[in-house]
Amino acid sequence: MKLKEAQLSTASFDPASADLPERLQRWLEGQWGQPVSISAWRRFPGGMSWVTIGFTAQVGQETRELILRLGDPGGLFAPYRTEPEFLALTTLAQVPGLPIPPALLRCDDPEVLGAPFMVTGRVPGDAPTPWSGAVNRNETERVELGKAFSETLGALHAFDWRGTELERWAEGLTPQNSARREVRRWAAECGYPENPLPPAMHYGMRWLEVHAPVVERIVVVHGDYRVGNFLRVGGAITAILDWELVHLGDPHEDLAWAGLRAFAPSDSDHVGGLVDRDVFHARYSERSGLAVDPARLRYYEVLMQFKSSAMLLGAARRVASGRASDTRMASMGFQLTPTLMQMLRLMESA
User: Fold this and answer.
1) Domain at 15, CATH number
2) Is 247 helix (H, G, I), strand (E, B) or coil?
C-alpha cells in the first residue's frame, strides 16, 4: 500500500464518531431481525491495537450488555481480520476451566463501521496490570489469582484442537517448522526483508533459526497470555481477553511470554507479579498434562524477546511511515535497545 493510501485509510476511521452507535444499531437490527436500541456507550482506555467499546443493547424486550471490538487501521498489528479471534472464542467456548467472552457476531466489511469488528458478551471484572500494583494489594487475592493464572493456561493447552474448526490453521505447520515460522512471522512484522533489521536483531533471528527446536506437542497458543489481558473479580479470573495473536504452536511460547519480566513489577521475581515461577510451572503441568522443558523454555524466552523487539520496532516504523499516528507507538522505539540487550544476554546464557 502506498503511503498516501495508508494515511487516508487510517484517517477515515474514527472510533469517536458521533454516528458510530447509530451505524452499529442499524447493522445489529439487520443481523437480529428486530429493533435494537443502543445506550451506555463507553470506550475503554488503553491498548494500541483493537478499540474496545462497551454498550447496552435493548433487543426487543431483552437487555444485553455487550462489547464492540474494532480493528483500528492504525493499530499495532493492522490490518486486522476478525476470523482468528472469533474462531478461537467460538471453538474454545466449552473448554472446562477456560473463561472467555462469548463471541456473538463479526464483520470484516470496512464500509459498515470503518474497520473490521466483532461483538461479544460483556463479562464482569476489572483488568489489573502489573505496573499499577493492583495485583499485590491483597495477598489472598494474589495467591488465588496466581493459581487461576497457572491453571487457566493449562486448560487452554490441554485442549485437543484436532477435528475442530481450528484444524485449518495447521496447514503447512509441522513440529519441525513451528518455531521458525514464528521467527519469520515476527521478522515480517517490522518489515523484514524489505526493511533491514538492526544488527543485534538480525543476529538474534539467525540464532533462533539455527537453534529452533522440534515441537513435541502443538497446542492452541494464546499469543499474548499475561497479566493485563484478563478480567478478574477478587481472586477469580472471569475472562481471558485479547486473542488477536492466537495460533497453533509450542506451549512454551505462552509460558515464556507470560514470564517476561517486562510484565511484572520491577521489584518482583514472580510471573506477572502473581506467582513463583516454579509454582507456576508445576500448576500448569498438573492441569495441562505437559512437562515444562527448561532448555526449550530458554529458547522461547529468547524468541519472546525477539517478538517484543519486533513489536517495538514495528510500532515505530508504522508511525514513521504514516500508517499510524499514536504517539505511544512512536515512543515504543525507545524501548528497543534494552529489549535487544536482554535478548543477547539470554542467548549467551542459553
Assistant:
1) 3.30.200
2) strand
